Amino acid sequence: MQLLMALAGNPNAGKTTLFNQLTGARQHVGNYPGITVDHKEGILTHQNRKITLTDLPGTYSMTAYSAEELVTRDYLVNERPQVVINIVDASNLERNLYLSCQLLELGVPLVIALNMMDVAKDRGIEIKAEMLANLLQVPVIPIIARSGSGKKELLDACVHLATEETHWHPRDISYGKDLDTTLAELVAKITETSLLIETYPARYTAIKYLENDDQILEKGRKSDPVTAQLLEELVNKASAHTQKTLDVFPEAIIADHRYGYIKSILRQGVVSHKFDTDRLYTSDKIDKVLTNRLVGPVIMLLILFAVYQFTFSWSDIPVTWLENAFGWLGDQVENTLPDGLLKSMIISGVIDGVGGVLGFVPLIMFMFFSIAILEDSGYLARVAFMMDRIFRIFGLHGSSVMPFIVSGGIAGGCAVPGVMATRTLRSPKERMATLLTVPFMNCGAKLPVLALLIGAFFSEKKAMYMFLFTLLSWVVALVAAKFLRSTVLRGAPTPFVMELPPYRFPTLRGLLIHTWERTYQYIKKAGTVILGISILLWALMTFPALPENKAALFEQQRQAVMHDSSVEAPSEKINLINNAESKATLKNSIAGKFGSSLEPVTKLAGFDWRTNIALIGGFAAKEVIVSTLGTAYSMGQVDTEKSESLGQRLKKDKNWNKVVAVAALVFIMFYAPCLVTVVCIAKESSWKWAAFSMIFNTIFAFSMAVFVYQVGMFFNLG
Ligand code: GDP
Ligand code: MG
């Protein structure tokens, strides 16, 4: 008979390690429908029984605060696995048992895998597993997931439990006199009306009512409004009472009693410390320095800077390889296919599009690798801890700092890995706010545009302007986050205990697995959609083709050059003619016409049709802005062309001046994120939010640009 088992535990308790040990390569990773929480499933055989094992997301608790916690408990009550393995970090027993306690309250058939026995031993912690098993009345099997020791005993215990257990046994824990009385009333009412009884044990529902759990309250109201109202009244009464007498909400009392329950078990001699004098474990000692009020932030900046250097400088080499490979591929197509639309589409649509996606892969891998080091070692939690106070002011979370920095917070990152990095955030609203504001950072693709415009119009104080624009990106991102959190993403900050797990030396295998899992998801997700959109953009900038008589004119010029032997450097001349033709094609294309038709509006910010096309192209990738400006502003005249850079040409152009430059910079920094980023936002949240980010950012950026331009022109600063 087939068995269904699930693996639950705190983040970093070793779930993935155990999962890999048990299932080897036979696993399948997907997402839970509609949300970006990994759903991992594997198959194994033990004692001739086929077992399907699900790796549930890591959680500290089973409230309704985060997607992970909801997924975990929904899975347990809906799929009803025959055995739940609760993996527990033995070196951190007390905190880890908090989740175990809630699993017991739910009543699932539980086996506790007491992991990291090696770490506990090194720290001089001795745990009497049998005694713990007796007190908790569930099997407790000591294991070392990393080496696989204890694996067989664990599976034996699971199969044994699966063969005898058929019912759930919710554990009764006392929550003090007041709440116990209310609980009894609630349970009586729930049993009497069979409210949600087919999904949750009555006592569990009652506890969730007392904890004011959104999901259960909602379900209760849907299934039986009358009973639900009665229950809610009872709870409100109890809540008012505890607030009056103890000045706390029932959920706080419940949490306290759970900890009390755990403490009372552990106090009976389950845990003994061998070196009592050495209570300051290495971890605490390291923390004395790393989270020190003065030194901590300095070290943090250094470490973040190192991550940044590693991600963006070291990945240069593979990025260049990939660029060369795609350049080579483009050349091959250029040389083999006949001129024409197909060729142009394959080069500008397919190769540039796919190349654009794959070009990010080394960057993403390097970034995830660095994050994996910080995460697996436990340092990321310290960064979040230190930044939390500042970020909270803006409705964000300490963990938002990493995505911001990766996206270009220090100048020259990339919003794609930034968006992906928001996965380390556990609370949904803070995560959304971070996701939507990281594209405001100055990514590497915006840098050439900044360099071009600042170089042309503010050449005297380049560094200062660069710094000011970086500062501006932070201010705007944080203020925008605050704005989102007080409007569309309104809601109290998610109560989230800042956990500081002990430092641990990451393993290369673990790092590689974490890196690859995330990178692969990026390739799979971004790859498919982008190809289509990139071809679409190519079409917009190519069609309709030049009218025949105009195209013929260019062809005549080319023929004339080729057949006139007196012309010097004919290939350069041909290039110029080709340039002029591209420019004409561009102006005539849908994108070009669109750019022209927008001119009356964009004039408010000082942008002409040529700038508009560049900005539209910049939606595909911000790098495109410079190259498109180059095409659109090429003079088409042989003599002046050669000697002038694009910057000089812009400076001379009557449509451009300092004020226009600043307005354009502001617009480029804050308008719709590039295509790849938008697709990533969509895949990480929904297309609705991706559309929101395009529209919101563009309107916002345009208002800023208009403001800058109008004020600047009013004071004649151009
Ligand atoms: P998850 O977040 O629960 O999936 O945890 P992981 O499986 O990613 O493990 C977190 C870290 O703990 C990794 O660096 C593992 O190599 C390490 N780890 C897991 N199990 C053990 C163990 O039994 N002993 C030791 N020393 N390290 C372990
Ligand atoms: Mg994991």
- Largest sheet strand order: 2-3-4-1-5-6-8
* Assembly category: single chain
Bound molecules: guanosine-5'-diphosphate, magnesium ion
Strand tally is 9
Average pLDDT over all residues: 84
| N/C terminus separation | 80 Å
Major sheet attributes: 7 strands, mixed
> What is the CATH architecture annotation of the domain at 3-163?
3-Layer(aba) Sandwich
CATH homologous superfamily of the domain at 3-163 - what is it? P-loop containing nucleotide triphosphate hydrolases
Measured by DSSP, the beta-strand proportion falls in 5-15%
Descriptive notes:
This protein is α/β, with parallel strands linked by helices and 718 residues long. Among the domains are: 161 residues, P-loop containing nucleotide triphosphate hydrolases (Rossmann fold, 3-Layer(aba) Sandwich), CATH 3.40.50; 98 residues, Helix Hairpins (Orthogonal Bundle). The chain contains 33 helices and 9 strands. A 7-stranded mixed β-sheet has the order 2-3-4-1-5-6-8, with helices on both faces. The protein has a two-stranded antiparallel ribbon with strand order 7-9. Strand 3 and strand 4 form a beta hairpin. Helix 14 runs antiparallel to helix 15 and helix 21 packs across helix 30. The radius of gyration is 31 Å and the shape is elongated. The N and C termini lie far apart (80 Å). About 1% of the residues have low confidence. It binds guanosine-5'-diphosphate and magnesium ion (MG). Guanosine-5'-diphosphate (GDP) binds next to helix 1 and helix 4. Guanosine-5'-diphosphate binds next to helix 1 and helix 4.
